[in-house]
Specification:
heterodimer; A: about 110 residues; mainly beta; 11 strands; about 0% helix; B: about 110 residues; seven-stranded mixed β-sheet; four-stranded antiparallel β-sheet
Chain lengths: ~110, ~110
């Protein structure tokens, strides 16, 4: 069985400050990890993903995440927060051959002007 | 670029009625997934189809059924609706052939059961 845990259901950062959203995973097989963003009243949009290869992955809108196997983590970061980053962020996991996605509980990011 | 299309976007039904939600995947995508997101909850996997065959099954109630058609679109049929079925229903598609793992989500259908 696979699972992801997102630490902090609500995170607030000031505009221009570092964004750090935490995700830890549990998997008995090499995982595929994803971050999706959900803006209010909209569907889920893929930010970035890790499958194999380079452990630091860059996504859209200046976000990046690093896969750390030793820490079973896949934290999402952005150097400088923008007001438009306010949304809900989901960390997801799947494994090849069983592609259904398992969601984390989500982190709602609020940007303080 | 073409995205996943879901229809209708909003649906209001009464208890014990039926509802049909439709999902049109991205062209050339062969796999469709359905997820249910209740109010204030994270999405939960319901069911998936690959090449018109059921691929995986999650927490889908027996009152629900789904299928994928020859043109790869999928329909989620919900009968004997209950108040607790009120949720946002997402469809996602991917191209499993070739090993592409990314699922692309539609905008969702918001179902309200009164």
């Amino acid at each position: 069985a696979q699972s992801v845990t997102q630490l902090g259901s609500h995170v607030s950062v000031s505009e221009g400050a570092l964004v750090l959203l935490r995700c830890n995973y549990s998997s008995s097989v090499p995982p595929y990890l994803f971050w999706y963003v959900q803006y209010p009243n909209q569907g889920l949009q893929l930010l970035l993903k890790y499958t194999t290869g380079a452990t630091l992955v860059k996504g859209i809108n200046g976000f990046e995440a690093e896969f750390k196997k030793s820490e079973t983590s896949f934290h999402l970061t952005k150097p400088s927060a923008h007001m438009s980053d306010a949304a809900e962020y989901f960390c997801l996991i799947s494994n090849f051959g069983n592609e259904k996605l398992t969601f984390g509980t989500g982190t709602r990011l609020t940007i303080i002007p | 670029a073409a995205g996943v299309i879901q229809s209708p976007r909003h649906l209001i039904k009464e208890k014990r009625e039926t509802a049909t939600l439709k999902c049109y995947p991205i062209p050339r995508h062969d796999t469709v997934y359905w997820y249910q997101q209740g109010p204030g909850q994270d999405p939960q996997f319901l069911i998936s189809f690959y090449e018109k065959m059921q691929s995986d099954k999650g927490s889908i109630p027996d009152r629900f059924s789904a299928q994928q058609f020859s043109d790869y679109h999928s329909e989620l049929n919900m009968s004997s609706l209950e108040l607790g079925d009120s949720a946002l229903y997402f469809c996602a598609s991917s191209r499993r052939t070739g090993g592409e793992e990314t699922q692309y989500f539609g905008p969702g259908t918001r179902l309200l059961v009164l």
